[in-house]
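PT: before anyone asks, these are the final sequences, not the draft ones from last week. 289 residues across everything. Please model them as a single complex and drop the result in this thread when it's through.
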Amino acid sequence: MKRLAVVLLLIFVAVAAFAGEQAVCAVCGPREGAGFEPVKAHATHKGKAYAFCSVKCKVEFLKNPDEFLVTDEGKPAPAFALKTFDGKPVSLDDFRGKVVLLDFWGTFCIPCVKALPELQALHTKYASRGFAVVGVTVDDRAPMVQKATSRAKVTYPIVQATPAVWSAYKVNALPSLVLVGRDGRIVRRYGGEADRAAMLASIEQALGR
Amino acid sequence: MMLAALVLASVLHAPEECLPKGKAAVTAEYQGKTYGFRYDDCREEFLKDPERMSQLYDALLELQAEGQVVEAPRASLVPS
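LR: through. Structure below.
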């Protein structure tokens, strides 16, 4: 299965290259294939900040932000089986019956790093009610990730993203948060710098008052 | 209605086509900056949402300044 995914990915990249398409870049989402690159451009839309790995991605976003910010609320959250930097396996199944907030981030994304203490506070506050934050980082630089997470005193799991997971969750901007309900379905997505009050309300609602 | 939207979409120029080659035919101002366009419809689209469009044109100009070829996509690989 993994081999098939890699082959499909290579075919896609080859087709994209042949068609003269732009940079291969996971931050732009599945439309751009896969492969992780640092943030190189920023844009604001409706008061929220978004980060992109290329100016071309930013252009694509600004042409039609609403189409770019896809929604799949109510649909089953794509399953994943990833690993922490010390090799511990973490899957979505581990959180079955819990409300999970997936934080797609990278150390090169300043708003993402700034949000870490806040996410940790949420994780601590609601843990007893069946809530967990899972950080899914696009970063493969373990020391950078460890530095950022230890500075923010993060205790929730930080797993290393794969292009397949990044694409499955249609992450096309950073930061990107996905709230998954106890039933394993996507409750809400938050792109850019999320509206914290709205996010808290959704978490409370998902947990059941 | 759908037909009208299709006709309108086919008439409107892509942002890449709106960038002036040489002197701009029309201009618009936003937050103290002047943006030049090749066609009237480009200016009209810009003025409908200047906050978004100014960022879009700034990004296109940035690409142009880097020496990259800025042209409207011929076809999309994005599944609809």
